[in-house]
Amino acid sequence: MKAGKVKAVLICLAPVLSGCLLLVQYFAAPNAGNYTTTLVYPFCVGAVMLMYLALCGVSLINSRIYHAIRRLAPLYCAVFIVLALCDFVSLKTKILSLPFFPWPERLLNQIIIDHAILFDCAKNSLLLLFTGFIYGAAAGILTGILSGRLAVFRYWAEPVLKILGPIPPITWMPFMFIFSRTLFQGCVVMVAFSVWYPLSVSTMKGIIGIKKSYIESAKILGAVNEYKLIIKVMLPLVLPTIFQGLISGMRVACGSLMVAEMMGVESGLAWYITWQRGWGEFTKMYTSVAAICLVFIAVDLLLNCAKKLLVCWQEE
Amino acid sequence: MPDEAGVQIRVQEVVKSFTRTDFDSPLVVLDNLCFSIERGRFVSIIGESGCGKTTLLRMIAGLDFPSKGCVYRDNVKVTALDSKCGMMFQQTLLFPFLTVYENVAFGPRMLKKYDPRQIRGLLQLVRVEEFSNAYPNHLSGGMRQRVSLARALANEPDILLLDEPLGALDALTRMKLQDELVTIWQKRKNTMIMVTHDIDEAVFLSDTIIILSPRPAHIEETLSLDIPYPRNRSDPRFIAARNRILEILQYAGDFR
């Protein structure tokens, strides 16, 4: 029992130890060549470590936080080790050298310098993504409902879905840009198209798969017209499948957005990547890559949280 | 059609057949069925599996229609569903996305007759008020059937159709719910029509039992049970009724 406790404490404190290792290497080991560093990065690492230690303190009285920390500690520990390794191969030994491989401190400073333009690019990317996403989701759900409920509609829609399904949405990009009045519109259509397909299929399959007896029991209870049946019974029943479609659609849409921004649109995070690469500014390029990662992880988290909230009735 | 005082449901010369894709001839399930049910009765329909009991119930509800003949509800030919005719199924078809309370309130909300006091009253009646905020997935089978019963009663139906409502429950829960069904029926005085495989259950609950022959089904016999409620399973009249049914179903020798 005692040994188990010691092990748990050691695991919980492992991220602090690996963080210290990172800082010791950062300050004690000499930098390679003429590389110079600032104190911003160690300050941020120190702040994160202090926050983690504060959480460890709270975990002594809150078992939920303790279990979360116990579960995530090895992961946090690995993050610090990876960062230390990045420092080692670039800043300290120049195994991977500039301009292609900036070290974390350099990236962080660049993010701080460029935060305004990065923020603006992220805003534009998100605006595009969500405009397209909302249109695509609405069209997908509508197509799914109509094909799920009307045999005639399904007869015509199914072959279209089958043909369009396997083709990656970015294939249509040239057409989108020819037929749309603005680049923004073209990109919105492409993102919408990326969401529309998976959502149409998942909604249709969900609706077709609803047990007939559910519909009958709803009818017996008074939901006799089709509108009430769809809104009050079918859509809530297929909400888990709709969310599956939304989440996979969002992933495809993010890909389409990146390609569209790299090819035509004149703003956004992927546009920034292409622009900076043109200038040979690899550090700036990486800051945008980091921002893209953060933004898309946040979007995915947002969708998963919405799913958790709205489909809380689903059996685990 | 001729009107008889007190008759709520009349099944007149009903034939039901289903077309089969791999056979030339249709499958005749119900063959010239005729009977009537008076208002306020508790009628059980028993017979072999596949003899069309559930089909008969569905035709009374308006979910299915006879191939020949007619079903009348309150002297009106059944052509559609009616909220005055509720139904409870063997599987709990509670909506998993609604809480217990919202499931029971579903019907009244659809009919724009929602009254929170009535819903709370029903939840009390079936003894699930403390689970009103739980989702069906978190309830036991017995609890779910109680909620299904409350949901079926929420639209205040004159006729309640029960399609093997307790079939999926364990013996003890089943007996408890049988007691409660009798109490609810006596309180609310609506017509109950139940399909069951359980002869004891039929004798315990009903005042009339319709015994169907194997497919194509016709009425083998209609038994009226004059045993006072609450019924005792060891009452000689109870045992006699059960044996009589077994005899009609030609299984008497196997069970005695």
What layout of secondary structure does this protein have?
The complex is a heterodimer of chains A (316) and B (256).
Chain A: H1 2-28, H2 40-59, H3 63-92, H4 104-113, H5 115-149, H6 151-164, H7 173-179, H8 183-208, H9 212-220, H10 226-263, H11 269-278, H12 282-310
Chain B: E1 7-18, E2 27-38, E3 42-46, H1 53-61, E4 68-73, E5 76-77, E6 85-88, H2 100-110, H3 116-125, H4 141-153, E7 159-163, H5 171-188, E8 191-196, H6 199-205, E9 208-212, E10 219-224, H7 236-248, H8 252-255
Parallel strand pairs in B: 3-8, 3-9, 6-7, 7-8
Antiparallel strand pairs in B: 1-2, 1-4, 4-5, 9-10
Helix pairs in contact in B: 2-4, 3-4, 6-7
Q: What ranges of chain B have pLDDT less than 50 throughout 5 or more consecutive residues?
A: 252-256
Strand order of the largest sheet of chain B: 6-7-8-3-9-10
> What is the first-to-last residue Cα distance of chain A?
32 Å
Q: Which chain pair shows the most residues in contact?
A: A-B, 23 and 24 residues
Summarize the main sheet of chain B.
6 strands, mixed
Give, in order, the helices and strands of chain B: EEEHEEEHHHEHEHEEHH
> Looking at this structure, what is the CATH superfamily of the largest domain in chain A?
MetI-like
Domain unit count of chain A: 2
Task: Report mean pLDDT of chain A, rounded to a whole number.
Answer: 86
Backbone shape of chain B: globular
Strand content of chain A: under 5%
